[in-house]
Amino acid sequence: MKIVIILPTYNERDNIVLLISALQQQFTGIKHDMNILVVDDNSPDGTADIVRAEMAKAKNIFLITGKKEGLGAAYIRGMKHAINELGADAVMEMDADFSHKPEDVPRLIAALDEGADFVIGSRYVPGGKIPDNWSFLRRMNSKWGNVFARYVAGMYKVRDCTAGFRAIRSAIINKIDPDTLKVKGYAFQISLLHEAILNHAKVTEVPVVFIDRTRGVTKLGLSDIIEFMLNAWWIRLERSKTFLKFGIVGAAGVVVNLLSFTLLMKFGMNKFLASPLAIEISIITNFLMNNYWTFSERDMNDRIHIRGLKFNAVSFVALAVSYTTFLILSAVDPNGIPQVHQLIGIIPATLINYFLNSYWTFKE
Ligand code: GDD
Ligand code: MN
To answer: Are 60 and 4 in contact (CB under 8 A)?
Structure first.
């Protein structure tokens, strides 16, 4: 396997040579084809020139330079270069300031060997650690970043969503196309992770101890924090969008149902025949709207008529759930208002309707 460690740098002249040699030393114990790609954004301190001098000494060191747009933008460029130009089978993210220990690289790669697609060097699993001397502010920043990522963006299962020490299979990155991630700064970390999870990547967290940098200064700025928080809400919105569309379709279905019911009776149909027919008409129009709008972006296996039958079956399950709820409520509260019971019945029915259709009918 060809692995490329991407090191983004901005003014890391005091770290980069030491890090490259520490990594080269680790590589001797790894069975894979190990490479280093430095992504330097024209650092004024001349980091790139120092890297060029190192490149003359070894064949597995590469460099790309560019305009400074942020950590995320640098990683996106680096990943594309590593995969498309260098032919990497997997890439790694790592800070160039020794916050991530070179000695931990083999453990992250071992997790890839064991079958993981997305390995996180995690500070928040047992055995992992953040520096003891971190200020209250830095601690809160990191903690809240993860709270946002886990509970706003919805990645509950991952402990360290913002980590910058990771090993990722190229196949996963190719599925995502990093260019579509509209993030420039540190928010990139959670956007990439989120997309990887959506693409069913096997995520593994390996404990690491994070070391405070001793040379140079951090590049994390206020704009990164703002972008990070907005991005977490954006991810949340994107996630709820499907459910929202499903709700709109459901409401439109009620209109279709009542309209066709009225029309059918106008044309002289008996109401006991018009009622189920109107229900079926609205099930079909709901199906078409969900198929061509709500879930239109999904890659689905089933043929459309199979999906139609499944959707119909789910609609009957929802009907049964809503009716059962109605019966239970009527028994528990015989003097209650029937309309309220009917309305409450819609809630579990809608949820079940949504989940069954999302995970079965319109399964990716
Ligand atoms: N090319 C490039 N362009 N490199 C950058 C840029 C940029 O705009 N901004 C930062 N870097 C480089 C730095 O030179 C360093 O090698 C690495 O990216 C990480 O930057 P730091 O400034 O050291 O980040 P940090 O220590 O505050 O943040 C670490 O923890 C975060 C989570 O708590 C990193 O590991 C982040 O990736 C992580 O999200
Ligand atoms: Mn750092």
So the answer is: no
Which tokens belong to 83?
A: 């995969």
Dihedral sign of CA atoms 152, 163, 180, 70 in order: positive
b/e map 84-101, b = 16+ CB within 10 Å: eeeebbbbbbbbbbbbbb
Mean pLDDT for 170-176 is: 96
For residue 50, give the nearest of 106, 96, 95 by alpha carbon: 96
Q: CB–CB of 82/91 below 8 Å?
A: yes
Domain boundaries, the chain: 2-238, 241-356
User: Ligand 1 test: best mutation among 5, 7, 10, 147, most atoms within 8 Å of CB?
Assistant: 10
CA of 159 to the centre of ligand 1 (A): 19
What pLDDT score was predicted for residue 220? 87
What pTM value is reported for the model? 0.79
For the 2-238 domain, the top CATH level (class) is alpha beta
Q: Mean pLDDT for the chain?
A: 94
Strand partners of residue 36:
5, 61
